[in-house]
Design goal:
The protein is an alpha/beta fold. The protein has a domain of about 160 residues: Orthogonal Bundle (Isoleucyl-tRNA Synthetase, Domain 1). Helices cover about 45% and strands about 15% of the residues. It contains 20 helices and 16 strands. The strands form 4 sheets. A 6-stranded parallel beta sheet has the order 3-2-1-12-13-7, with helices on both faces. A 4-stranded antiparallel beta sheet has the order 5-4-6-8, with no helix packed on it. α2 crosses α3 and α14 runs antiparallel to α15. The longest helix is centred in the last third of the chain and has 30 residues. The radius of gyration is 26 Å and the shape is elongated. The structure holds 5'-O-[(L-methionyl)-sulphamoyl]adenosine. 5'-O-[(L-methionyl)-sulphamoyl]adenosine binds next to β1, α1, α7 and β12. Keywords: Aminoacyl-tRNA synthetase, ATP-binding, Cytoplasm, Ligase, Nucleotide-binding, Protein biosynthesis. Monomer. Its EC number is 6.1.1.10. Is required not only for elongation of protein synthesis but also for the initiation of all mRNA translation through initiator tRNA(fMet) aminoacylation. Its main location: cytoplasm.
Length: about 525
């Protein structure tokens, strides 16, 4: 059954399908939070959105990890997957599809896709020799390796020498077509630094890559030669396609691609850029399918300058962080403090300071003290000020009117930190404005009309800020909206486009005296700074 409203634009965003060699860490959470924010933003715009996440469960890395804990790989995966589902729930991630590469319908999709590529003459048998990093599930060039034959990404792991018969994918055949594609679609790889990386890599000349393994049985058999097992990445990338199937439809490529293909945005970390920006488009070209619109490679979360990861064991526990500080706090911090695309270090003191300054002070206090003043000076009602009557050069109105477009632009190019900074700057301007206007003394002087204009414009600004930040801090935004008298829950965003569409809420002057204000309550409790600071 096709449930999609064809009158609307569709938007599909994916996270990587995470390896299940361990429970998720903050690096996995980072991409997933960003994808959820994009999905929420696209929904506010009124688009039909599909957010895909899931798990990558085959291959040597998973097989070995399962074996070392004395479990069958499938059982091992089944035990780890719930930790991803739970973390996404805790972080308020509202995905639409969870794609597991061990799902039965996935094998049918992989088989059909393989056949297309095979029929196109792009798969052949050859001898593979090279250094393999099991943690990356990738062959490495000797020149990339660190001293002691260690992987540059998993710096404690030595690569392993392989010399075996494999099936190869004819990547070299797509050299020119890929180059032309990157030229004609300059936005395909983002940010620009990552695009350059890919162009440099492709310029050096593409080599065919092996897509099967021997001596490994945890994976799908190669359809034309079951003694071989399909390379985990060949199967994993196709997990995005399987995810598009309606739950009750026959697993065929035609069904999978009918409604949502091509994918609009693959969000990934920079370490898996080559797979998404080179191998994946070439595989799709070979299968004669349209290519995705955009691949965005973000940076790494680091600790003391090293990539946080399961292999190095220097991760931050996202469960603990969310439980101690709330999901909105975690979502806000990582998106506001790190430019998406760059690496960013985590420091708990900084984390606390940012949340206290932005959410507890600038935004939270502003709402609270303004609502309390409205209670005192306006009998608890939204001042009946016609926003149209406020002059356009009013400092908050002037800034507020331009903000919606500015923030929309920032979300569109995934500059989440800029979206936050733009909103925050209006919030800070409002704090300054209220201090300068001093409504308490205007009230004493009997200037009721002026008091009302000041309080109205500050409340309206807080509303606009809450709206524009709602993809990032849905709980806090709902709380603010509710205190301002709306019965809108951004938390469940599946129908947010109907209850609070962007074109109606992202402008300044929406608050009206019809609104029945709620009881003022602090939205974000100040966090105690750490003792060891
Ligand atoms: N299974 C593959 C992806 C297949 S997609 C068809 C994989 N999985 S992973 O679990 O190792 O990594 C998933 C994502 O998490 C990658 O995008 C990776 O960049 C990201 N991160 C892992 N550690 C990270 C940080 N320390 N910081 C930010 N993101 C990082 O690769």
């Amino acid at each position: 059954m096709n449930l999609v409203d064809k009158t609307k634009n569709t938007f599909v965003v994916t996270t990587p399908l995470y390896y299940v060699n361990d429970v998720p860490h903050i690096g996995s959470a980072y991409t997933t939070i960003a994808a959820d924010v994009v999905a929420r933003f696209q929904r506010l715009l009124g688009n039909r959105v599909l957010m895909i996440t899931g798990t990558d469960e085959h291959g040597q890395k998973i097989q070995r990890t399962a074996a070392s804990s004395g479990k069958e790989p499938q059982q091992f995966c089944d035990e780890i997957v719930p930790s991803f589902v739970n973390l996404w729930q805790l972080l308020n991630i509202q995905y639409d599809r969870f794609s597991r590469t061990t799902a039965v319908n996935h094998q049918a999709i992989v088989k059909e896709f393989f056949q297309r590529v095979w029929d196109n003459g792009d798969i052949y048998q050859g001898q593979q020799q090279g250094w393999y990093c099991v943690s990356c599930e990738e062959f490495k060039e000797e020149r990339e390796l660190l001293e002691g034959k260690r992987c540059p990404i998993h710096t404690t792991k030595e690569v392993e020498w392989r010399d075996e018969q494999n099936y190869f994918f004819r990547l070299s055949k797509y050299q020119t077509r890929l180059e032309e594609f990157y030229q004609s679609r300059p936005d395909f790889i983002q940010p620009a630094s990552r695009r350059n990386e890919v162009l440099n890599f492709v310029n050096q000349g593409l080599q065919d890559f092996s897509i099967s393994r021997v001596n490994l049985d945890w994976g799908f058999p190669v359809p034309v030669d079951p003694k071989h097992t399909l390379y985990v990445w060949f199967d994993a990338l196709l997990g995005y396609v399987t995810a598009l199937l309606e739950p009750d439809s026959e697993p065929s490529l035609t069904n999978a691609l009918a409604t949502w293909w091509p994918i609009n945005l693959h969000l990934i970390g920079k370490d898996i850029l080559r797979f998404h920006a080179v191998y994946w488009p070439a595989m799709l070209m070979s299968a004669n399918l349209p290519l995705p619109d955009r691949v965005f490679g973000h940076g790494f979360l680091t600790k003391d300058g090293q990539k946080m990861g399961k292999t190095l064991g220097n991760t931050l526990d996202p469960f603990d962080l969310v439980q101690r500080y709330s999901s909105d706090a975690v979502r806000y911090y990582f998106l506001k403090e790190i430019e998406f695309g760059k690496d960013g270090d985590f420091n708990e003191n900084r984390f606390i300071n940012v949340l206290n300054a932005d959410l507890a002070n600038d935004l939270g206090n502003l709402l609270n003290r303004t609502l309390n003043m409205v209670k005192k000076y306006c009998a608890g009602n939204v001042p009946s000020v016609a926003s149209a009557a406020i002059p356009t050069d009013h400092p908050l109105k002037a800034k507020g009117q331009a903000l919606g477009e500015q923030v929309k632009q920032a979300y569109t190019v995934l500059a989440f930190n800029e979206a936050c900074l733009a909103v925050l700057s209006l919030v800070q301007a409002s704090n300054k404005f209220i201090d300068e206007q001093a409504p308490w003394s205007l009230y004493k002087q009997g200037k009721q009309e002026e008091v009302e204009v000041v309080l109205y414009s500050v409340l309206e600004t807080v509303r606009l800020a809450a709206y524009l930040l709602s993809p990032i801090i849905p709980n806090l935004s709902s709380n603010i909206y509710q205190q301002l008298g709306w019965n809108i829950n951004f938390d469940d965003h599946r129908d947010s486009e109907t209850v609070a569409p962007f074109h109606l809420h992202a402008t300044w002057g929406v608050l009206s005296s019809e609104q029945k204000l709620g009881t003022p309550q602090p939205i974000f409790k100040r966090i105690e700074t750490l003792k060891n600071d």
